Structures are given as structure tokens and as C-alpha cells.
Amino acid sequence: MKNFLKFSLLAATIVGSINIVEAQQAAIIEDFKPSVLNQPQQEFPMVNSQGYVRFKIVAPAADSVRVSLGLGGRGGTKLAKAEDGSWTGTTEGPMDEGFHYYNVRIDGGKFNDPGTLNFYGSVRWESGIEIPAKDQEFYTLKNVPHGNVQQILFPSPSTNTSRRAFVYTPPGYEKSKEKYPVLYLQHGWGEDETAWMNQGRANLIMDNLIAEGKIKPFIIVCTYGMTNDIRPGQPGGLRNFKIEPFQTVLIDELIPYVDANFRTIAKKEKRAMAGLSMGGFETKTISMNKTDVFTYYGLLSGGTYAPADFKDKPQPKLIFLSCGSKERPDGVRKAGEELKAAGFNAVSYVSEGTAHEFQTWRRSLFQMAPLLFQ
């Protein structure tokens, strides 16, 4: 009798699980469209109005295909093989809004999806997909005046090479004689200087804010934040990162180059530094080491400041702290409250429904930009 009850409970559990899965699958709306980040004329991957993603990979000789984009740490999305040698599958649930990196595992090997564009993240070029967001208007390409994003190569004697940066100049820069404030905006671990303009759409965020009259135009500079060769799997990993070499590149080489070659207001009162994740760590460390260079600070999923950090140091004009609601928002909120109580101009922002990802940081830039250089 006892074994019969155990069997009955097990059977009921299995049936219940099957019913849940079937209900989930039945609830999927079949209005899938190609992702906006697909390669030209590529149909897959596809996204529906609920945020589900459907993949199709042609690999006729493969024994297994799985996509890393998935939910809950369950190993991603397993694809099923069709008679024509293609593999298809749909995520088991809707994905968070915004941009996501992903890759394809074919018989255990890691590959990029040939159907979509690639973006530098996780210390490699990864496939990217965009889940349409309800608030995507603020970073959408619109019929407004646009600024320019240009690549520069600046001399770096400390690293014995020329280093790269991307510079956003606002609409009208080329035709005016006006000088502008500058935001030095850093990427996260595993990314590079292309991240903020590509994945982050920082230039479009700025164009739209300027067109709506919500901010005073300013320049943005993005450069590579790693100066020592650290790779995944190396002993010590990120713990071996030293701020001093990058601080030298930024303070002694990049900023003087930008001030000499662009129409900037070369004063600390018109200079800001912010960064996401590891870029936030860089921002906090350098802003504390070089209080004579920046006076606006932003940590985007990159830690917090405390009043004690500023003992015997000048008070900045703004401290902006942010993260996603799926990160650790209480710490950001508490830090903001403590800074305000201590007399600092501090703003904390939490992106609802997002985690450690670019939708959090797009929204953070959108919230932070109007507060700079006021």
C-alpha cells in the first residue's frame, strides 16, 4: 500500500509537470518576428510579443545543439533536430527586456549563431539578441539630429602603443565653436570600448535626450579599461587587476589628448566619470585617487560610495548609483539615503525587472545624463 501511494504521488507529480509545461507551451503566442539584430536576410533567431525567443541552427551532422540563452540556470535552450538537418527550439519562458549575449553549443563546442550580429562581451565576440522593451523609445533610432561617433587612436607611452577610444560628439558640434563638458564612460568586465555605443546605444540615448531638450549637450569618451592581460581561467583572474596602469592611461594620456583635440571645457567641474560593473570599480577607485580631475561620479551596477569615503576629500557635485531590481537594489537605495543624509547630492536609481545587463545600464544612463553638468 505504501509503495502504491508513493507511485501514485510520483505519477501525479509527473503528470502535473507535463501539464504545466503543456500549459506554458500552449500560452505562447505565435507572432514571432526576426530579431532586430539579425544578419541581413536572416529569419532566425525570432522573438515574439511576449519575449520568447525561437532559434534555428542548421547543423545536420551534429548530435546535440543547445543555446546558452535560457532561464534559471537550467543549461539554456535545448534544440530538437528536424528531418532537414536543422535544429529548432524555443526558450521555456519569456526573456527579460533588452539586450542579451548568447552562444550556441554544438556537440559541446561553443559557436556564434550565424543568424545574428556579434558583440564583444565575455572576453569574446558573442551573438546578441534584443528583446523589445516597453520603454524602448528612449534609445530608438529616430528622425532627430544625430551626433557623431568616431574612433580615435591616442598615444600611450606608458603601454608603449597607441590605444583606441570612441568619442561621441553631439549634434551640431562640427558647425559650432562651443566647448563641451565630457563624460568618461567605462564598459564592464569582458567587454571593450565598443560596448556603450553598440550594446548600450549611448549615442542614440544622447541624441533623443538632446532633441527633447532634456539635457545640455556633452561629449562622451569610451576607452578600453584593461591594461594588463587577464583572461578567464588565469590564476587570480580579476583579483590580479591593478588600477594604476589604467589610471595612468586615462588621466595622463587620454584626457590630455581629448582636451587637445576636441573642444572641451578642460575643468574638473565639467568632467564626469561613470562605469558599469567593473567600470564602476574603476570609476570609484580613480575618482577617489584623483579628486582634482572629476566632480560627477556614476556607479552603474558597480558598487556604492559611503560618506566615510570622502573624509578629507572634496565633495563631488553628483553621485549617481544604480542597479537592476534583480541585482541587490537595497544596497544601492541605502547608500543613496546615507549619502543624502550626510549632505551629498546623491541619486539612487533601480531599473525594474532587469538584472546585470545592458537594459539596466541603458536606463541608468538615461536617468543620469540630465543630472550631469547642471
UniProtKB/TrEMBL annotation:
This is Esterase. Coiled coil: none annotated. Pfam families: Esterase. Residues 1-23 form the signal peptide. Keywords: Plasmid, Signal. The lineage of its organism: Bacteria, Pseudomonadati, Bacteroidota, Cytophagia, Cytophagales. PANTHER family: ENTEROCHELIN ESTERASE-RELATED (PTHR48098). InterPro entries: AB_hydrolase_fold, Esterase-like, Ig-like_fold, Ig_E-set, Mycobacterial_A85_antigen.
